[in-house]
Amino acid sequence: MKPVVLDNNRIFRRVGVILALFLLTISIGVPLLLIFWQSVYPDGQWDWMAPIRTITGHHLSGVLLNSVWLGICVVAVTTLLALPLAWMMAKTRMGQHRWVDVILMIPFMTPPYIGSMGWILFMQKGGYLQQWVPSAEKWSELFFSFWGMVLIMSLHLFPFLYLLLRDALIRIGGNLEEAGSVHGAPAGYRFRRIILPLLLSSYGMGIMLVFVKTIAEFGTPATFGRRIGYYVMTSEIHKYISSWPIDFGKATSLASVLLSVCLVMWYMQSAMSRKFTYRLVGGKGQRSKRYSLRGGAGWLCGIYLAVLLILSVGIPYFSIIAASTMKLRGAGLSLDNVTLDHYRDLLSWGSVSMKAIGNSLGLSLAASTVAVVIGTGFALAIGKSSSFMQRVIDLFSLLPNTVPGIVMVVGLILFWNSPWMPVTLYNTYGMVVLTYVVLFLPYTVQYVKSSFTQIDGTLFQAGQVFGGKPLYILRRILVPLIIPGMLAGWMMTFTIATRELVGSLLILPPSMQTSATYIFAQFEQGQVSLGMAMAVVTVGMTVLMLLGIELLNSKRKWNAS
Amino acid sequence: MLGMKTRKKSAMLLLTAVMSISLFGCSTNSTAGNAGQSAGEGSTAAAAQPTETAGGKLVLYSAGPQKLADNIVSGFTAKTGIEVEMFQGTTGKILARMEAEKSNPVADVVILASLPSAQALKADGLTLPYPEAANADKLNKDWSDAEGNYFSSSASALGIVYNTKLVSTPPTSWAELATPAWKDAVNIPDPTLSGSALDFITGYLSVNGDQGWDLLDSYKANGVAMAGANQEALDPVITGAKSIVAAGVDYMAYSSKDKGEPLDIIYPEEGTVISPRPAAILKSSPNVENAKAFIDYLLSDEAQKLVADAYLIPGREDIEASNRANLKDIPQLKVDWNWMSEHGDETAARFSEIFK
Q1: Phi, psi of B300 (to 5 degrees)
Q2: Residue B5 — pLDDT band, cuts 50, 70, 90?
Q3: pLDDT for A459-482, tens place per residue?
Q4: What is residue A484's three-state secondary structure?
Q5: Residues B135 and B282 placed together within one structural domain of the fold
Q6: Is the dihedral of CA A510, A515, A521, A522 positive or negative?
Q7: Using the beta-carbon criterion (under 8 Å), do B24 and A6 form an inter-chain contact?
């Protein structure tokens, strides 16, 4: 493959690659190596068998299979949920309703353990559903099964796949399909032979991330999984890290197994994506075809969207809001049991909770901005991952997403709190920002990469032919084309950073709280209502903010062509 | 264009550096603002970062009820003018944090919710003895270290917590929970997450020997569910999804009950385990004098009253709580803390094996 970018700048390209590698090494590579070091060097002596012993010594194969099977099922269900939706939003008039995008981000903004709690409170014996519809007693507890867990996790993760697929579909544009249709291809054939192959690279990336997120997820297994007795790798790892006796060695051994599974997935995805990447954004003008939906099809799409919204937002948030407005949790759903006291406590000026909200917003803004800048740099350095070094960067920048957050965080602590470290970053605000950036870098990299790889190199050549200086080309061609990716990455990072829990629990300086740790602390302290109220407030604020951005963005009315 | 990219990158690096420095500055201010109401003493905020001057600050890692910890911290700050930075979490999280910070520790004092963990800290040589602590002689001897390595300033008892809407005649013995009347209606906290639940199980086994496992096996056969830490086990009982928590900590039940939730607690007549909550000064403490002052405060009349107000059993024998059952009213098992400390890990492992 030809490098897209100008050949005469090869040296600068080298420097960029080396700089990216250096940054990744100190922020991701070394911390992970330290973790590995801990697992083979326990108690001050070299014992390379230790990880292998751990793995064989625990009924690990079953737990590992549980994790993988869960991952596969969640990938299948998220595909079922996201693909039709992405098509509707990209190719039909429904796409004009941009607010749907923001609403659909809500499940992803909700801390997974809160979402699962919502479902549990709704479906359990004596839960909200049974209080509402007493006859549901016969079947609602059937929800507490493996498939219930798959559904909860899929409803949490599908927006992520949906965004990737929708953007890819928009980029495909209408011309290709029109060409197919002119040559007499029916809709099914067009989908199979035109859309599907073009979609494959984005889809591969999406499902890989969904798979990895599923098997690295901790919140749902810890709440719902424990309840149905479904144990996965992360619950085992977390056990070794957060309950006595603490054993980082064993935890890291298990983490390395998880890591290997993820690496296999990454390899498969990257092979597939190298084969199926096409240049879609070229110099020619493009317009996207939008079907207008009339009659039955319109109804069908509307109902599909409504059901999806009820399942992914309606039910969990009904439970969350109900729980947050209850005087007594033992008294159940009734009007005289409603109170807004928890919100008043929460939002009184100068309270711990307000400080926590402020901390969350500040940290997320800082982290997402830094992550976008660095991540875009990395994505450009990776380019089309044609050289070995570029593939190494690709892999490295994906690692934080494949390693369970808690492992990555322990690695960061080991590294930044080591006695020989000249800068004291640990226990400061900066450390939290660094952790968030490291944890969420993969999102920006993947989003920008996915925009960048589809830009045809001829665009840059054209710019050069017409005498554009590098800076001018950068400003007028490259940046506008990758801005949607950058923006998606920024929004994603911001959204997840506001709800990040596992890392924050370990890394926040003492007496500093974010909204996520505040919620968690309330749950630990038995103030479930207060915790739920905080979840509502945080998610509400994030939604408003994203709506604002969406509004600004739609004013620009600019398309990816 | 790529030259641009590298230049952009180095500029960005610089920006990151500047940003983290300025944020660092912010954090200094915000921690000073957080630490209690006495902002008057907080003017030394600049000195509150890792310098080793006494009179400045104290880093406390505390498990257990947050309200109590907040009250104790603000009382301590009001009295001594020492700023406290507190990390609040479960015993497991605190130990994990200490492990992660092993090479460069920052904590001065830890308050844990499990005695065996404190005994382990002592055995590993991580604690700093402070035998001269004021009022240490009034503490319950069984719960604190004679050499002054740890002081149990409070304790909770484990009982059968039940939902009063669903349970009219509560069970009166541990064995009764294995009867068909309570099939699938009982939660038990996970001993790997809840130090007090582990104390109960090891305590029960230390009295009953290997036969003690029969009880736990019969629990499993009767559908008793292992459900996370204490609060996670209790919450379904409050909402009515389950009827009973076996080995639930009593202070949570008392405080929920006072709020008006349909809860009550009973201590089985064959006796239960009291789970003390030890505080210890760490050997690596950078602010030893402040840490000692904190322990003194923790054992003072004032702090012990705060403990009693939080529905816990005060660690000092001369102070009684008015809002809960006192120590003398709770039937106790004759537990062997040394045995419990030695067999904690294997018991927790075997328990998880049974209940998984």
Answers
A1: -75, 165
A2: very low
A3: 888 888 888 787 888 788 888 888
A4: helix
A5: yes
A6: positive
A7: no
Interface probe with A: pick from B7, B8, B9, most Cβ of A within 10 Å: B9
Place of tokens 């700089």: A19
Give the residue from A262, A276, A121 showing the smallest Cα distance to A202.
Answer: A276
pLDDT digits (tens, 9 = 90+) for B183-204: 889 999 988 878 888 889 999 9
Contact B24 A521 (CB under 8 A): no
Give the pLDDT score at A79: 92
Residues B193, B333, single domain; the answer is: yes
Phi, psi of A493, rounded to the nearest 5 degrees:
-60, -45
State the pLDDT at residue A77: 94
Count how many residues are written for chain B: 356
Q: Measure in Å the smallest separation between the Cα of A222 and chain B Cα atoms.
A: 8
Could you tell me which of A63, A403, A404 has the C-alpha nearest to residue A233? A63
Neighbours of A196 (CB within 10 A): 12
List the CATH code of the domain at A7-332+340-556.
1.10.3720.10
Q: Tell me which residue has tokens 């209606």.
A: B185
* Of the candidates A485, A468, A523, the residue with the CA atom closest to the CA atom of residue A501: A523
Decide if A339 touches B, using CB distance below 8 A.
no
What's the domain range around B201?
Answer: 156-274+326-355
* Residue A133 near chain B (CB below 8 Å): no
Nearest by CB: A511 against B12, B16, B86: B86
Entry pTM: 0.79
**A345, amino acid identity:** D
What SS3 state is found at A436? helix
**Domain-embedded: residue B44:** no
How far is the alpha carbon of A329 from chain B, nearest alpha carbon, in Å? 6
**Which residues from chain B sit within 8 angstroms of residue A523, using beta carbons?**
231-232
Same domain, B250 and B349: yes
How many alpha carbons lie under 13 Å from residue A202 in its C-beta half-sphere? Answer: 33
pLDDT tens per residue across span A220-233: 888 888 888 888 88
Task: Convert the pLDDT of each residue in A200-247 to its tens digit.
Answer: 877 887 888 888 888 888 888 888 888 888 888 888 877 777 666 667
Distance between CA A514 and CA A511 in Å, rounded?
Answer: 10
Co-location of B260 and B172 in the same domain:
yes
* CATH classification at residue B282: 3.40.190.10
Those residues whose C-beta lies under 8 Å from the C-beta of residue A196, and which sit 6 or more positions away, are none
In the numeric block, the tokens 């619950």 are attached to A235
Helix runs in B124-243, H state only: 195-208, 212-221, 230-239
Beta partners for B152? B278
Q: What is the pLDDT of residue A479?
A: 81
By C-alpha distance, the chain B residue nearest A512 is: B31
Q: Tokens in use for A201?
A: 């690279």
Tokens of A382: 């990776």
Q: What are the distances in angstroms from CA A489 to CA A119, A163, A420, A497?
A: 29, 11, 34, 12
Q: Which CA distances in Å does B67 have to A330, A352, A459, B74, B311?
A: 22, 12, 62, 11, 11
C-alpha A44 chain-centroid distance? 37
Q: How confident is the model at residue A284 (pLDDT cuts 50, 70, 90)?
A: low
Residue A135, pLDDT > 90, answer: no
Are the beta carbons of A47 and A40 closer than 8 angstroms? yes
What is the C-alpha to C-alpha distance for residues A283 and A561, in angstroms, rounded to an integer?
Answer: 8
Rounded Cα distance between A145 and A136, Å, is: 16
